[in-house]
Amino acid sequence: MIFEAPLRQKKVFMTVPLISPMPPVASGVGLPWDAPIDDPVSALDGARRSFGDTFVVDSGEDRYLFTFSPSGVACFYGLPEDRASKGIADWRMLRRKLPDEMFVGRRVLPQHLFGREDVTTYLANVELAVDATIDELGSAGEFDVFGMARRLGHRVGLASWGGPGSAVGERFDRLVRAFDTLDGAESFVHPDAMSLVAASGKSAERGALGVILEELGESRQELPGVEDRHPLFARVVAAWSDQQAAEGMIGSGLDVALIHVASMSNLFAALGWHLIDLIGHPAECARVRSGDRRLAETCALESIRMAQRSIMSRYVVKPVELNVGSAVHAVPPGVTVATLLPLTNTSAAPGLDAWDPNHWNRRRLADGSKLAAAELVTAFGHGRHSCPAQPFSLSAMTLASTRLLAEYEFDPSWSRRPYPVVAQIGGVARSALPCHVRYRRCRDRSSP
Question: What's this model's pTM, rounded to 2 decimal places?
Answer without folding.
Answer: 0.93
